Amino acid sequence: MKRNIILFGPPGAGKGTFSGQILKILPDIVHISTGDLFRYNLKNNTPIGLKAKEYMDKGALVPDEVVIEMVRDKLNTEEVKNNGYILDGFPRTLKQAEALSKMTKVDLLLLLEVSRDIIMKRILGRFGCKKCGSIYNKWTLPPKEKLGDDKWKCDKCGSDVVFEQRADDNEDTLNNRLDVYEENAKPLLEYYKNITKAINAENTLKMTDDDIKKALEI
User: What would the pLDDT profile of 54-109 be if each residue is shown by its tens digit?
Assistant: First the structure.
């Protein structure tokens, strides 16, 4: 079944995790992450990637027009046209939402709702294995074998893993990001109010296949 879905929620809401759960139900649907699109276009020096790089090299925000062009290119592929999509990280502004409406029909916006306290734990506790890239959380999902204070053995590759926060993972920065998200979310949620379905995202991994099908309205 073809569905065109926007996955929306604050940083740390678990959009990547929930996308994976949707893909188990709709295996052919295309997961479109704006982060992945940026990395692909920058790595391959595409014309749109080079345009984005000009702004990034100056430390400036990449303008809506460039982001919209990246998404439009992806939406125009046969794979997406035939199988539908999960949009993760787009739209983030009302201008982007209005541009998206001219490109495609959106069937559903899934709003992942989670408390700020839980988001703090998820983001401030996250760390990863530098060898294989496995992601962990100090409080909610540590590796199984502990080797010492803030040190574990990676479940996947067996390497030593040390808890190290990313430079931008601190409480002040995160509170600011969440404030910005909430401010931008209001007009977007108003724009999509007729196709929005709220999901309690405090523990989506406990959702059954039937729960996810109900959320997807299939």
Answer: 998 988 888 999 999 999 999 999 999 999 999 999 999 899 999 999 999 999 99
Task: Establish whether 122 is a catalytic residue.
Answer: no
Neighbours of 18 (CB within 10 A): 23
Annotated catalytic residue 72? no
Instruction: Sketch the domain layout of the chain as residue ranges.
Output: 3-115+179-216
CATH 3.40.50.300 fits 3-115+179-216, yes or no: yes
Instruction: Specify the pairing of strand 135-137 against strand 84-88.
Output: unpaired
Which is the catalytic residue, given 3, 74, 122, 126? Answer: 126
Instruction: Give 151-179 pLDDT, tens digit per residue.
Output: 999 999 999 999 998 777 788 989 998 99
Q: Is 92 a catalytic residue?
A: yes
Sign of dihedral through CA atoms 181, 187, 191, 196?
A: positive
Which residue among the candidates 53, 95, 138, 177 is catalytic per the annotation? 177
Q: Is 166 considered catalytic here?
A: yes
Catalytic choice (39, 81, 166, 197): 166
Q: The sheet that has 3-8: what strands, in order across it? A: 30-33, 84-88, 3-8, 108-113, 196-200
- Give the three-class secondary structure for 185: helix
Q: What is the pTM of this model?
A: 0.85
